[in-house]
């Protein structure tokens, strides 16, 4: 039912989610500062402070990611990230059409939120890709650059450190786009702040 109140976000999910958001934003800002400035000409934050904050928040994000993994392994939340391949493209198409046209015409969503399905098919596909592919890559590449001695010296004739750094930056850029899109989609609710409030209280 549209007016039914659902408890969708247990405390551990809310803690993980807000920690993840804060840490990722700090990593984004410090990453930009390191990428587009030099020690003599800081962009957002001093270069030295950016490096320190980036390393600390990167380690914290990695530990927080373990909370996500173990939480999904040992609670029912893990099923929210499982996708059925049969009819997947049709479901993705239907949800995309709703986002592009239907919601502006006040049409009912094709996949209403329920306790069994907190995510619509497009959300499930994007969130699963981000959390189970994007995050492991950016964490692994970040750890590798923190301990560069473990990186393969050469990869197809190219510096292994350069390849690792480029991979880290590219995945970081893609996840940053995901963050901005995620924030925008969160404003699509009964009110602009209703979905943000849900992640504070747990109730949708």
Automatic annotation (TrEMBL):
Localisation per UniProt entry: Cell membrane
Entry GO MF terms: electron transfer activity; heme binding; iron ion binding
Transmembrane segments: 12-33, 53-74, 125-147, 159-185
A biological-process GO annotation: respiratory electron transport chain
Record key words, sorted: Cell membrane, Electron transport, Heme, Iron, Membrane, Metal-binding, Transmembrane, Transmembrane helix, Transport
InterPro entries listed in its UniProt record: Cyt_b561_bac/Ni-Hgenase, Di-haem_cyt_TM, Hydrogenase_cytochrome, Ni-dep_Hydgase_cyt-B
Cytochrome b561 bacterial/Ni-hydrogenase domain segment(s): 9-202
SUPFAM superfamilies registered for this protein in UniProt: Transmembrane di-heme cytochromes
GO CC list: plasma membrane
Membrane topology, from the record: Multi-pass membrane protein
Family listed: Belongs to the HupC/HyaC/HydC family.
Protein's recorded name: Thiosulfate reductase cytochrome b subunit
């Amino acid at each position: 039912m549209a007016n039914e109140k659902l408890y969708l976000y247990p405390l551990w999910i809310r803690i993980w989610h807000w920690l993840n958001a804060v840490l990722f934003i700090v990593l984004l800002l410090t990453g930009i500062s390191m990428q587009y400035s030099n020690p003599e000409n800081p962009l957002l934050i001093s270069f030295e402070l950016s490096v320190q904050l980036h390393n600390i928040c990167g380690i914290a994000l990695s530990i927080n990611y373990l909370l996500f993994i173990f939480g999904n392994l040992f609670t029912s939340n893990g099923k929210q990230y499982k996708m059925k391949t049969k009819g997947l493209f049709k479901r993705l198409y239907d949800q995309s059409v709703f986002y592009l046209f239907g919601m502006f015409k006040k049409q009912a969503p094709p996949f209403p939120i329920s306790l069994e399905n907190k995510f619509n098919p497009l959300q499930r596909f994007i969130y699963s890709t981000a959390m189970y592919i994007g995050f492991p890559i950016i964490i692994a590449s970040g750890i590798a650059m923190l301990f560069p001695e473990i990186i393969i010296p050469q990869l197809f004739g190219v510096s292994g450190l350069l390849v690792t750094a480029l991979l880290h930056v590219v995945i970081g850029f893609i996840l940053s786009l995901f963050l901005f899109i995620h924030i925008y989609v969160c404003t699509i609710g009964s009110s602009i702040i209703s979905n943000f409030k849900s992640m504070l209280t747990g109730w949708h």
